[in-house]
């Protein structure tokens, strides 16, 4: 018999849950919604309910030159509570401050947390924009679903985030290369120890003014090929932006730093397939026998996070290769591939002189060039240009940053306020 709302309401499973003492109305509503895909009719996020409680003690704006990524936060934050019994509550923008959660909150014991990272930019005319925020909303919903946190209307959340940015837009430094880093986070807050979908959750958004990742120009980094740890495995959670994915990576990064490398390169399987660079997606450029350049990134196979910057680099490269539009300075002889890459291929190409460049991509750095990879006791050297970048990454970076900051018109740029 197919699972329907009617059959579940009258079925034996409900009786078993009642007998076991695990049945209550809110639990059942959540189970039915998950099993059948039918709406629970509980309220979703509604931007029309947004409440504003401005701070009475605004902080002094920091000197832009002294900003350290992720250490300074604006005056306000957005909070939206959720419960299994009543759905999403009224969004509120209030003073940035501490959260109050029970020591038994599920986020503290079982890492029930997901987050996103996005940036707001202000141009010389004062217009503030976000870059492809719809992709962040979609990915955050996918991540929430993976750890049994509540889903939400991404468009409505985005409207609330826009209002938060409008309130604190004066925190965006006016100097070129600066922006406002926006961090939406969703946590399980049920005050109970036990592994199950939480009865209570909290979605909050904080903002941090940030400067250019490379204030003194691009500096290529060295990577250490990590073989004793893995970041993700097939069927796991590597494709989702979960807090639980990041803490285990710190020890690998510490090991790499101890050996003199800035970051680690995650390898997987007996053939040492490349997956990610630290917390970034990765790209490699090879020179083919016919002289064409091949831009390669590992496919989204369930182990790799679908990065917004990754997708943007691919879209720009594919659009240029297909002559849909031109990325100035990028070669016309370009092939774009999403395929597996092994360290053997990287090493062989380096020795043969056909390894052109290697770089990571992410929201914070946008593009991070690599000049060497420590692997199995020796370094694989990677060419870099005089300014630290390569022939493919540099023109794509210029196009991408232009679209992010609004100097190049693009429908990827979403207006927050004029």
UniProtKB/TrEMBL annotation:
InterPro entries found in the cross-reference section: Aminotrans_IV (IPR001544), Aminotrans_IV_CS (IPR018300), Aminotransferase-like (IPR036038), B_amino_transII (IPR005786), BCAT-like_C (IPR043132), BCAT-like_N (IPR043131), BCAT_family (IPR033939)
EC number: 2.6.1.42
Required co-factors: pyridoxal 5'-phosphate
Stored CDD domains: BCAT_beta_family
Catalytic reactions on record: L-valine + 2-oxoglutarate = 3-methyl-2-oxobutanoate + L-glutamate; L-leucine + 2-oxoglutarate = 4-methyl-2-oxopentanoate + L-glutamate; L-isoleucine + 2-oxoglutarate = (S)-3-methyl-2-oxopentanoate + L-glutamate
Keyword Manganese in annotation: no
Keywords assigned by UniProt, alphabetized: Amino-acid biosynthesis, Aminotransferase, Branched-chain amino acid biosynthesis, Pyridoxal phosphate, Transferase
UniProt xrefs under Pfam families: Aminotran_4
Top EC class for this record: transferase
PANTHER family: BRANCHED-CHAIN-AMINO-ACID AMINOTRANSFERASE (PTHR11825:SF44), SUBGROUP IIII AMINOTRANSFERASE (PTHR11825)
Protein name: Branched-chain-amino-acid aminotransferase
Organism in which the protein naturally occurs: Jaapia argillacea MUCL 33604
């Amino acid at each position: 018999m197919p699972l329907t709302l009617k059959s579940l309401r009258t079925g034996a499973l409900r009786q078993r849950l009642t007998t076991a003492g695990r049945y209550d109305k809110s639990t059942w509503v959540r189970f039915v919604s998950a099993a059948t895909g039918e709406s629970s009719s509980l309220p979703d996020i509604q931007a029309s309910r947004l409440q504003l409680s401005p701070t009475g003690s605004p902080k002094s704006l920091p000197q832009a030159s002294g900003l350290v990524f992720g250490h300074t936060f604006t005056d306000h934050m957005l909070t939206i509570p959720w419960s299994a019994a009543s759905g999403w509550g009224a969004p509120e923008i209030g003073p940035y401050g501490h959260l109050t959660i029970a020591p038994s909150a599920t986020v503290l014991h079982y890492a029930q947390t997901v987050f996103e990272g996005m940036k707001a930019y202000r141009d010389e005319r004062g217009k503030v924009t976000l870059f492809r925020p719809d992709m962040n909303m979609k990915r955050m919903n996918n991540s929430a679903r993976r750890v049994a946190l509540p889903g939400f209307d991404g468009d409505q959340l985005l409207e609330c985030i826009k209002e938060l940015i409008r309130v604190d837009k004066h925190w965006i430094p006016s100097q070129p290369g600066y922006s406002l880093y926006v961090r939406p986070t969703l946590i399980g807050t049920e005050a109970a120890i036990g592994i199950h979908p939480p009865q209570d959750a909290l979605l909050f958004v904080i903002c941090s003014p940030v400067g250019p990742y490379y204030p003194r120009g691009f500096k290529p980094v060295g990577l250490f090929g990590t073989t004793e740890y893995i970041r993700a495995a097939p069927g796991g959670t590597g494709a989702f932006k979960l807090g639980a994915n990041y803490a285990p990576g710190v020890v690998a990064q510490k090991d790499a730093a101890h050996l003199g490398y800035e970051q680690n390169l995650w390898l997987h399987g007996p053939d040492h397939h490349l997956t990610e660079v630290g917390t970034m997606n990765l790209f490699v450029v090879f020179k083919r026998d016919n002289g064409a350049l091949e831009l390669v990134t590992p496919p989204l196979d369930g182990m790799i996070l679908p990065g917004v910057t990754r997708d943007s680099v691919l879209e720009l490269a594919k659009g240029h290769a297909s002559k849909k539009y031109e990325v100035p300075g990028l070669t016309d002889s370009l092939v774009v591939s999403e395929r597996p890459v092994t360290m053997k291929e990287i090493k062989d190409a380096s020795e043969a002189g056909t390894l052109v460049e290697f770089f990571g991509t992410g929201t914070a750095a946008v593009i991070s060039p690599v000049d060497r990879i420590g692997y199995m006791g020796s370094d694989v050297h990677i060419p870099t240009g005089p300014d630290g970048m390569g022939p493919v990454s540099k023109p794509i970076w210029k196009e991408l940053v232009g679209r992010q900051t609004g100097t190049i018109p693009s429908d990827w740029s979403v207006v927050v306020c004029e």
